[in-house]
Amino acid sequence: MKKTIYFLFGLILAASIQATDTIRLNMQAFMDEFPQDSAGKWINTYSADQPSLDFEEFRFAHMTNAMQAQGKDENGMQYWDGFTLCTNGDDTDYGFAGSSTSWPEHQWGCMAGGGLDSTGALIKGAPYLVAYWGYNYEAEGVHSLQVDWNDGLTHRPLGIWVCNHPWAYYGIQHDDGFAHSFADNGAQFNLIIHGMDEEAKEAGMPIVHHLAHFHNDELDISTEWQWVDLSSLGQVNAIYFTMESSDVSGVLGMNTAAFFCLGGMEILEHVDEIPRPSGLEAEPLDENRVQVTWHKVSDAAYYRLYVDSVLVDSTTTTSYIFNNLQTYTSYRFFAQAVSAYGESSDWGYVSARTKDLTPPTPPQNVQVTEVTMYKIVLSWEAGTDNIAVDKYVVYVNGKRYSRPKYTSVSITGLDPATTYQIEVETLDTSGNASERVSLQVTTLSAITTDLEESREDSKQQVYTIDGRKAGVQPVRGQVSIVQTGTKTQKQIIQ
After folding, report:
1. Strand partners, 262
2. Cα separation of 46 and 37, whole Å?
3. Is 29 helix (H, G, I), strand (E, B) or coil?
4. What residues in the chain have per-residue pLDDT under 70?
5. What's the pLDDT score for residue 63?
6. Which end of the chain has fewer CB atoms at under 10 Å, N or C?
7. Quick one: CA torsion of 314, 319, 321, 327, rounded to 10 degrees?
8. DSSP E strand stretches across 187-316
9. What is the pLDDT of residue 455?
10. Predicted pLDDT of residue 493
11. Which of these, 123, 109, 133, 104, lies nearest to 41 by C-alpha position?
12. CA–CA separation, 389 and 430 (whole Å)
């Protein structure tokens, strides 16, 4: 009987979706509100007066800033993030290997050569949106590439038309001032689309679209408009875009130019559905368990629970402990509300990683390899861990001295003829520490020897360690010869 109810409800839901009107982004109807300059871009691209581009139901984020206000540029150079409206359709390559200097003034093009009409057909001179991801300014609930619905209701995104931007496209084809060409299998440049709930938190599973992908020894990169299905995001309050590239640097982050073009968007009119669970929080309990909690859904009779989209259980409460997970592994956890009539909501979503509580083994065979008056050198064999060893921690007389990545350390700045308590422990990538290996080491004393020979002069003479004469004030690394009466002494200063 329950299966029959589910089947009938599925038919009703499918019919309601088909009957729901589709809302399409119509940029052409608003061209009078967004006049273009000679470069084919919205004239207010660098103006702070308009923080968004509004097209009836759709609101696209736009941000500008004058670097002069931050004291960075005496010329008042400006930049922009988010979306801007363009028409020029320029697909010219303005860069070359080693240089991107011409791109800033030619940011307004599109590899398809123009925008789309209402049927999805390419038209030269038709408007489209150039999007630039200002990843340095991302914050929770506020994103540089955010799209809101002006009615404040939830809508189900159906899809978007996207196309490669020339700056990113040619940087992937050949090197430029920042980007490197794609030539290795696995290299990719991705657009990621996220849903947002009423609390401005992530809703549903993000959708990943390859703008470029090098696989099977071949570069797959399109110059056409491509449709990206977004229906799996479910009903959301907004969407936002992020980007990722395999071409990254430690200082600047993503080297590939963070641009793409958007030619259209479709969403469904708002329909009353059972809300998805919101406010999902995940707390790793130990190596194999994660507790997930969420806000109560008023119409829910129970909740279905999923791990990485696989159904694992159901509950009538707003909390659930996921068991039998792998140690130190990232998972996506989903909750779905179900009404007493079998109506299912969209998925609420949160991610978390299980803990690693297993400490590593201590360093093995810790040895003193060198001792002087002022220095102790240690070496050891690597410890082991169930996940991975990160580094080692060296303590001198109970105080942390260093955290070397490698299996040796040079402890300097010590006092002569002094005994030190030295300890070494292994640290894993989760911060777990092993037992400490302890040993005592005594630095050398100053070396004083009597010479058989006598010297007639009673003056002190100082030599370098290789026998060359030096100044009269001995320093470390020199030999001091001192005569007192008929007795001559040699002191080696270490």
Report:
1. 129, 162
2. 12
3. helix
4. 1-20, 65-77, 137, 139-141, 250-251, 447-494
5. 85
6. N
7. 120
8. 188-196, 202-215, 218-221, 226-229, 238-245, 248-249, 253-254, 259-268, 281-284, 290-293, 302-307, 310-315
9. 41
10. 53
11. 109
12. 9
Contacts of 453 by beta carbon, 8 Å cutoff, 6+ apart? 488
Residues 6+ apart with CB under 8 A from 477: 464, 465, 493, 494
For strands 419-428 and 364-371, give the pairing: unpaired
Instruction: Give the tokens for residue 159.
Output: 């899809």
**Around Cβ 24, how many Cβ atoms within 10 Å?**
15
Q: Which residue segments constitute the domains of the chain, with CATH numbers given? A: 21-268 (2.60.120.1350), 364-442 (2.60.40.10), 448-493 (no CATH)
Alpha helix positions (H), 156-246 = 166-173
Q: Which pLDDT score, from 0 to 100, does residue 271 have?
A: 87
Quote the Cα angle for 194-196-201, to 5°: 105
* End-to-end alpha carbon distance in the chain: 91
Q: Across the strands, what pairs with 157? A: 267
The pair of three-digit structure tokens given for residue 135, joined into one six-digit string: 């990843």
pLDDT at 491: 55
Quick one: pLDDT at residue 159?
A: 96
Residue 438 CB neighbours (<10 A): 12
The neighbouring-strand residues paired with 284 are 290
Alpha carbons 243 and 134: distance in angstroms, whole number:
10
Give the residues across from 191 on adjacent strands.
209, 243
Look at the block and give the residue holding tokens 């978390």: 352
Single-letter amino acid, residue 54: D
Measured CA to CA, the distance from residue 356 to residue 281 in angstroms comes to 20
* Dihedral of the alpha carbons of 119, 124, 129, 132, in degrees to the nearest 10: 130
Looking from the CA of 275 toward its CB, the CA atoms found within 13 Å total 15
22 contact partners, CB below 8 Å, separation of at least 6? 158, 266, 267, 268, 269
Residue with tokens 């006049």: 35
pLDDT in tens, 230-288: 999 999 999 999 999 999 986 678 899 999 999 999 999 998 889 999 999 999 999 99
Give me the pLDDT at residue 162, please.
98
- Cα gap 339→343, rounded to integer Å: 5
The answer to whether the CB of 145 falls within 8 A of the CB of 82 is yes
Q: Which of 233, 238, 156, 235 is nearest to 199 (CA)?
A: 238
Amino acid of residue 353: R
* Torsion sign (Cα): 47, 53, 59, 61: negative
